[in-house]
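User: Run a structure prediction on this.
Assistant: Running it now.
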Amino acid sequence: MTSQIMKIVIFLGVIFILAFALFSLIFDLFVYPETATTITIPTSTSTTTSIVSTTTTSTTTTQTTTTTATTTATSTSTTITELILKGVETVEYSGYGLNLNNIVSTSGGDKYLISIKTPDGATDEVEFYDKFVIDNLEFGILERYGGLSVKIYVRDYDIATSRAPKHSKIITLGGKNFFLFERTFIDYKFKLHGRKLHIQKPNGDTDSYDMPDNGSIVVDDLEIGALQYSYPSGYTAIYIKSSYDFEFSNYLKSGTYNNIHKTFGISSEGIDLLENPAHYMQERDGPFVYSVDVGYIPMQDIYENETLVDLEWRGKILFAGEEFYVMDIEDDTIYLVKGTIRGINNLRFSSSYSGYEFKAKGLSYNPEGDISNMSLLIQDPDDQESCIVLYPNQISIIDEYIRIQPITAYKERGVIRADIFIYDLFPLAVLQNGQSIPHKPQWIIKFGTVEQPFGEDMNVEEYENITKGQRLLANITIIRRERV
């Protein structure tokens, strides 16, 4: 009798295990494929971030997960997102649409055929075995499910992003249907056949250019160069960046400017000690093409012993008869942009800039009680909302037209108030010491910098006792290089 009872118990146990396994399989097939997960892996330091969103769309369900690749002054992270492609269903990721058309078994393994639609509306079909790359994104196979279903990953393609100039746009051309795969960027249309780049300009004119193996070409106010001719999946990657054509005149201007202190992330004690002297800027004529005295502005945060005196310059600068904001200073390179400063709060969206509106969502603090980051709601021209996190010393990509950077933030009586820079990325003027100016290869830029011990000409009293080794920019001069 006891033996029969044991057999019944074992039999029921086996039935229970099989039922549980079957339930888990069904659950994985019908529930798990509809989710997107993100994995964060530490990588090297960077200073930019972008909005990353994933959407899975089918006839019965729609699920959206928004994640953000974040950066601080000391650490950063790369976001890897897992997606499930299931037959005719469209999966959207950061503006890209993907459909799994077929999986073909070959002697080399499973070959995947995926249709892709880019954020600018171009469509193509990609054939690949393990991964493919489009623009600055790498898509790869993680796991094949039963039937027409597969799990893939998405991450930044570091080979391209590390080669591209700072503040440039990466797009891919060519591919399987190279002459139908037309890409659009700020009203210019691009197609590539071999090394021949075809460009339709906003006025409708079409020109063709031979792409060099090294270097770049200049078309209107755009600099275009090749990054990689043999992407995984057959595309060619190019970068596009602004190449602003300055107009110099004999009418010389002057003005007085103050720094704009980016105190976001700085302790309150450090803020109280900051100096902000006025800097007089004056254009000059002489035995050179052009020169402007910029009044000894700081090219990095400057200290007196260990006390912070002033911050790297983010105010306006006078150059070629125009006023620009200084978006960034990196060694011997200065990035000049147009833009504005926008005050925001957590009560309502700000006024519109280029179709975007902004609203503070929340503040985070470090153990010392200082602000470490701010979450920001963004409403785009299509009235779609997304959320990003702003960190100190971070420039955030909104689209190919604008970037934003936090200036200040504080909370008072439950209301968050903040100021942010909004930068236009076109035009973007890049001044590099010792290099030629865009469109004029014979005109060379020279930075006139000074550091301790200062001469009598350095007339900013607040900087007289700063520590040695810290540079102030006295002037920017353009000289004509003699032809050899």
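The CA atoms of residues 95 and 119 lie 5 Å apart.
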